[in-house]
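User: I'm writing a tutorial on reading structure tokens. Could you give me a worked example: one chain, its sequence, then its tokens, then a sentence or two explaining what the tokens reveal?
Assistant: Sure. Here is the example chain.
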Amino acid sequence: MRNSITVPVKACDVFGIFGSPAQHFMRPTFLFSALLVSVSFTALSQSDVLDSLNREYSSAEADTTKINILLDIVTEYDFSDTSGLEVAKKAYTMSQNVESEQIKSLAKAKLGLFYYEMNIDSGGLLLDQAIREFEEINLASRISDTYWNMSNIQQKRNSNDSAIYFLNKSLTNAIDNEYNFGIAEANYSLGLIFNIRGKNSLALRHSIEARDYYEKDGKRKEVSQALNQIGIVYDYMGLYAEAVENYLRAREIAIETQDTQGEILIINNLGVVYDNMNNPDAALEYYEEALEKSGIFEFIEDEATLLNNISYIYMRKGDTLQAKKALWKALRIGDENGIACFEQYPQEGLGSLYVALNQLDSAGYYLDKALINGIECEDVGVLTSVYKSMGQLFEKRGELNSALRAFNKSLELAKEADLNNDLKGTLLALYNFHKNQGNITTALSYLESYRVLSDSLQETKNIEKANQLAAEYEFRKQVEAVRAEQLANEMALEEKIEAQNRERMFILLALVLVFLLLLTLGRSYFLIQKQNKKLKWLNEEKNTLMGVVAHDLRNPLNMIKGLMQLVVGVKTVSEEEDSEKYLHLIKLSTQKMTDMIDKVLDISAIENMKVNLNMSKEDLTKLLTRSTENFEHLAAKKDIKIEQVYDTGSACYSEVDSNYFEQVMDNLISNGIKFSDPGKKLTINVKNEEGFQVVSVKDEGPGISEEEQKNLFNRFKTLAAKPTSNEQSTGLGLSIVKKFVTAMGGEIFCESELGIGTTFFLKFKEA
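And here are its predicted structure tokens:
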């Protein structure tokens, strides 16, 4: 069985600006892992397959059957695995005692590949013999597969010339024998290698051939991978519209084939394209979506890639601390998991960052490492960026001749590989270099070349087309979602009509029975109808309470989620101290959720049609302070300031249920944050007025019209104002607040002015 290849991941070229124009630097063009590896299975799934095959082997009687099962077992191991080698040896030994030439050749090829991977001399000899035997018994596909696997092994050794040699032999054999899958696989691997080497015309030709032959062979998942690789090549060449078009088609197929990891890589590459088009916000959305999915499914290598990419968004935004954290984490993940041909990317990123920060010794250390690894992996993209960053480093050290040589090397590689984005970055770096040296004429010539590439009408049209394609894709998804919803509604309506018809029939039958039985069944019918109404009402009340808990649980859940993100990234002592605070808040939020669930699950609350209260004398200032602290991190994310204007040292006592009071405040504070724009202020106060404690929550949101204020506390009434960051809103919140405040003997009302903001007031008797 042929080993599948990893979908390549690439990062983009962006400019991070720190200080003077001479400090511009470009992100490395990044093709993740030239190494071809087997399809990733979890240890559990591989164990299940091996257990099943071992059971089959134990029950098999014929030697030929046993050998075939052993060969199937071998496919579950990497060729470097000594356990797999022992199975291959056993299959080969047993094959010598059977008459089937095909089984003998297959066993010989499998054992040869293990020896070849482990650099055992007899490996090549066994493979040559197996290939000749495949020719004699007309097993052309096995010849192509064997050459392909040999190229795979050569690529793991970074021997790409040897890999190309074997791939060409695999391709020739597959073409001669019309073996479509073999043609596709060889072309795909050639496209991958040529892309790494910067031979984009060859990479594009082979990748398109791979796509076409995968389609002929009906390999939908592989078609998605080929489209992804085509998109990578187009992105390298600066053809963004073509890249986006191929990525979107690849993503649709990945979703269709449930290829989650492939979809993650494609989402990452869409982020790369938008970063290349100078749209970092859109790029960050794609990166964060892919990072969330990779975390859920524990795709460690993808997480490292995405952290590397996200670091450059931080650089662009000027957040060097977060950029360094992301790059160090990516480098650590790569080291811990032995990800081949990866470490040069975070190394180049750290080197470029330290150049911009004038930490030249650290910059030189990381750039030297990135250069060594880039040369070893033959990665033209990363080498182009490394030489440019080294040029900037030499310039800052005053080694001007070395700087110019490094810049020219970067320019040469970018031109040879048709790396449009890298080329622009190097041209700008050369402009800054010559300008700083007073070579104005030379500097202007490089600036003009940069402007021709950056401001060309063709590139503008290309970006517009790419944005249009993405918008059309999103629109198409929305239309499909609407259609699906419409179909679901139609089915629900049909079911409802059928239910109504059945109900009418039951009612008619009941009427007939009432008519026949007269007074005897009349009384029973009356009691049943009355009971049904009560049950229906109780069911509605139950649904309302379920809505209450679903709504109110969202706040502590979101709080826990946000706090856990803060705790997970803890590294320093100060952060550990902060984490104690966050863990305490998590504990409080968890206890709050438990209390809420206990109250909702109390059946007497439904049957008695009232809320169960635990009233006690409480200091409202302490409760307000606790609720405010719970929302500090959420407000900070939107740059909203929560201001407490009351004296936290003064007590304001009232008889309330502390749990319900906190739920009321959670709703009001979260609404204030939700409907306020970034940079606004939320003011919280409590004061004594004529024997009452009056709590106020004032926001600077859009305000509420007089008409809408009439329905403000009704269930499922949503207002014209919308959350400013697409937060969830069910329409239940203020109805819940009203119910709880009334149950505690308080009053709630609001004052609002459109365009100015809204203030909610809670009024409780002084205790």
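What the tokens reveal: Residues 472-506 form one domain. The longest strand covers residues 681-689.
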